[in-house]
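Render this sequence as a predicted structure.
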Amino acid sequence: MLNRKTYFIREHVGFMKLSDTYDILDPETQAQLGIAKEKPGTLIHVLRFLVNKHFLPTKVFVYEGADHEDESRLLFSIQRGFTLFRSRVDIFDRYGMVIGRLKSKAFSIGGAFYVFDASDNEVAFVKGDWKGWNFRFLDKQENETGTITKKWAGIGKELFTSADNYIIALNQEPTPANAILLLAAGLAVDTIYKEG
């Protein structure tokens, strides 16, 4: 799954859901490549009735295939602690080792955050447009290396649910390490930075 240049991220629709689930699909065939499941913990579930979930910690686990119960299919996870102004998200491999992090920019129109590798080297800057629906991956020279584009699901779904769909597209052949960082950044746009 980590050798691909494009992914379609489709959020599951649910009424009063306390955690999110995302299908990771092939944009052309709609075949399921993986699944991302938010697992924030029991106490955080309870706190979400009282506090905006944007401020609370969360964990999202990404599995290859459709089975999120099979831990052997785990590819990576992303985790955010309590946040007030700026979010920091750590990215872990299947063994729990930090392989990167995301740090939000303090002030931006449309949202922006930095992507770092395990050695704290900046590998990308993710910048949103003024609507906060479309994002661009930029390298240090500000060359576009990929995009995250909101895919409209229809007027009924858009008006009555908070479920979002995105296409993540990379402009170059990914290495597994870069694919994890950029896929994590794409998932973080919705699961970490936009959901509230």
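Summary. The longest helix spans residues 176-194. Confidence is low (pLDDT under 50) at residues 154-162.
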